[in-house]
Amino acid sequence: MERIVFLDRDSIQADIRHPGFPHGWQDHHATSAAQVTERLNGATIAISNAVPDSTC
Fold first, then answer.
1. What does the alpha-carbon distance between residue 54 and residue 2 come to, in Å, rounded to a whole number?
2. Host H or E run for residue 37
3. Which of 26, 36, 46, 56 has the smallest number of CB atoms closer than 10 Å to its CB?
4. Does a structural domain hold residue 54?
């Protein structure tokens, strides 16, 4: 089963359709660069729009 993590749900004001395959889904209102690794631990799919990239 896929584990989907949406890192910054509040940055997109639209309905996001969940996929038709078996999955777990976790929304976070916002995610700082320091939280990315922890929140993506075990995720197989990540959705992001506005999370700062600390690797640049």
1. 26
2. helix 36-40
3. 56
4. no
Q: pLDDT tens digit string along 5-52?
A: 999 999 999 999 999 999 999 999 999 989 999 999 999 999 999 877
> Containing domain of residue 42, as a range?
2-47
Task: Note the residue count of the chain.
Answer: 56
Tokens standing for residue 17: 């359709």
pTM over cut 0.85: yes
Answer whether residue 10 is part of any domain. yes
Nearest to 8 by CA among 23, 38, 28, 22: 28
Closest CA to 39 of 9, 7, 13, 3: 7
Residue 55 falls inside a structural domain = no
53 located within any domain: no
